[in-house]
């Protein structure tokens, strides 16, 4: 096998890292700072029928008022599970039950609540960093495999540098997105 034939698919690695960034944006969108929004519940998963399911697949999510989100749970047996999932989500919202309807009053953002939200944003960013690092690890595994298949040491060093630079670039994007989101949250 000639050295020209051994190449690491950095486009695939980049696509997967881009997916981590896209997922982070979705999670950040759930951290609405001013008004109630149905998207704030998107990252919350409910243990329904033996598997983790998004809330919008077990009930209808509505925003009847600027500071209120309601969830009309379709299956009575899931109401308590949905309530529990919201309480454990870290959103800092206290659900109120009314039959099969769960009401989520969105509190005014005081200084303490803003700090809580910045911590949640930091957790989301850390998950994105871990995802990017996992993609990096996969890339490094590909390089090790290619080396055992005859890749030269110079090529190995070249590809390791490429994968590391790609990783650094995406980690920097995660940090930048976090800084921006935390700035939005802390803005009064």
Descriptive account of the structure:
With 188 residues, this protein is an alpha+beta fold. The chain has two domains: 10-26 and 111-186, Topoisomerase I, Chain A, domain 4 (Orthogonal Bundle); 35-105, Gyrase A, domain 2. The chain contains four helices and six strands, in the order αββββαββαα. It has a four-stranded antiparallel β-sheet, with helices on one face. The protein has a two-stranded antiparallel sheet with strand order 1-2. Helix 1 (10-29) packs antiparallel against helix 3, helix 1 (10-29) runs parallel beside helix 4 and helix 3 packs antiparallel against helix 4 (153-186). The radius of gyration is 21 Å and the shape is elongated. The protein starts with 9 loop residues before the first helix and ends with a helix. Mean pLDDT is 87; it is low at 1-5. Keywords: Cytoplasm, Protein biosynthesis. It is found in: Cytoplasm.
Number of domains: 2
* CATH homology superfamily name of the largest domain: Ribosome-recycling factor
Indicate the mean pLDDT: 87
The best one-word shape is elongated
Give the uncertain stretches in residue-range form: 1-5
Features:
single chain; 188 residues; alpha+beta; Topoisomerase I, Chain A, domain 4; Gyrase A, domain 2; 2 domains; four-stranded antiparallel beta sheet; two-stranded antiparallel sheet; 54% helix; elongated; disordered N terminus; RRF_sf; Ribosome_recyc_fac; ribosomal large subunit binding
């Amino acid at each position: 096998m000639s050295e020209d034939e051994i190449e690491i698919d950095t486009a695939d690695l980049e696509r997967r890292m881009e997916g981590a960034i896209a997922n982070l944006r979705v999670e950040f969108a759930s951290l609405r700072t001013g008004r109630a929004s149905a998207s704030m519940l998107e990252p919350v998963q409910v243990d329904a029928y033996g598997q983790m399911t998004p809330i919008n697949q077990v009930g209808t999510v509505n925003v009847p008022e600027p500071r209120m989100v309601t969830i009309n749970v379709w299956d009575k047996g899931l109401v308590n599970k949905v309530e529990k999932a919201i309480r454990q989500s870290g959103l800092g919202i206290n659900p109120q039950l009314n039959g099969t309807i769960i009401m989520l009053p969105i509190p005014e953002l005081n200084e303490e609540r803003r700090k809580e939200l910045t911590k949640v944003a930091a957790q989301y960013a850390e998950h994105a960093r871990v995802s990017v690092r996992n993609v990096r690890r996969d890339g490094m595994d590909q390089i090790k495999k290619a080396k055992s298949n005859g890749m030269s040491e110079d090529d190995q060093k070249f590809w390791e540098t490429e994968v590391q630079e790609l990783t650094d670039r995406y980690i920097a994007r995660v940090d930048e997105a976090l800084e921006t989101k935390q700035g939005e949250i802390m803005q009064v």
